[in-house]
Amino acid sequence: MYKDKRIVALIPARGGSKGLPRKNVLPLNGKPLIAWTIEQAKASVHIDRVIVSTDDEEIASVARAHGADVPFLRPKELASDTAKAMDVILHALSWLEENRDRYDVFVLLQPTSPLRTTEDIDNALTLLFSKDARAIVSVCETEHHPYWSNVLPADGSLDGFLRPDIMNKNRQELPTFYRLNGAINAAYCDHLRTGKTFFGKGAYAFVMPGERSVDIDTRIDFQLAELLIGKKPSSQPCQRT
């Protein structure tokens, strides 16, 4: 609980991941991938309950073994390739309401972001209240500046590929761009129920360093996380906006 608000964290982990099969239970530096996020959430001084939403019995068993609650198995229709994350969130909120376990703030923690820290989670929640925000979404600086990107025509012509005003400019001369990193999404539950989004009026960014922003979707992502997770935590503090 924080500021007299009850806070629940949801870790979504379906069994049918395609880019890296069974990734949620693959061992990452000695423990299942999902365990990293469970342990971070359970160590939070603000989060009251940590729930895993899954359709998979093995994932459920691993999650329970590492201290998470798995009070229900997600319906199969919410575990397909086309299922929307917001539908999974609303399903969990409805289940909690039906079981008379109401919360004020909801935190979504993807298990594919194992390099975030408990401090990141708590700082994001602190920002939610200090900003008097309705939602907080984590971001990091883009690795490749979007001004250097464009679509290509069928013939591959580069005519007009770059904007004239950025020709011959160094990256340092361009504005800083940020991307969603998928590590932390937090919002008041009523904001999610009515708007069905973490964005909109009252939403703010929580800026994280790139080295804690790896989002695992492929084997290469997994290997990068293995490399980075063995290093000491970055001394670079989390930035707030």
Structure, explained:
It is a single chain. The chain is built from 6 helices and 9 strands, in the order E-E-E-H-E-H-H-E-H-E-E-H-E-H-E. It is an alpha/beta fold and 241 residues long. The strands form 2 sheets. It has a 7-stranded mixed beta sheet with strand order 4-1-5-7-6-8-9, with helices on both faces. The longest helix has 14 residues, at 85-98. It is globular, with a radius of gyration of 19 Å.
How is the secondary structure organized here?
Elements: E1 7-12, E2 27-28, E3 31-32, H1 33-42, E4 49-53, H2 57-65, H3 85-98, E5 105-108, H4 118-130, E6 135-141, E7 178-188, H5 189-195, E8 203-207, H6 219-229, E9 239-240
What is the helical fraction, as a range of percent? 25-40%
Question: Count of helical segments?
Answer: 6
What's the CATH class label?
A: Alpha Beta
Radius of gyration: 19 Å
Produce a short descriptive summary.
This protein is an alpha/beta fold. The chain has helices spanning 33-42, 57-65, 85-98, 118-130, 189-195, 219-229; strands at residues 7-12, 27-28, 31-32, 49-53, 105-108, 135-141, 178-188, 203-207, 239-240. 27% of the residues lie in helices and 18% in strands.
Based on the model shown, name its key terms.
single chain; 241 residues; alpha/beta; Spore Coat Polysaccharide Biosynthesis Protein SpsA, Chain A; two-stranded antiparallel sheet; 9 strands; 27% helix; globular; disordered C terminus
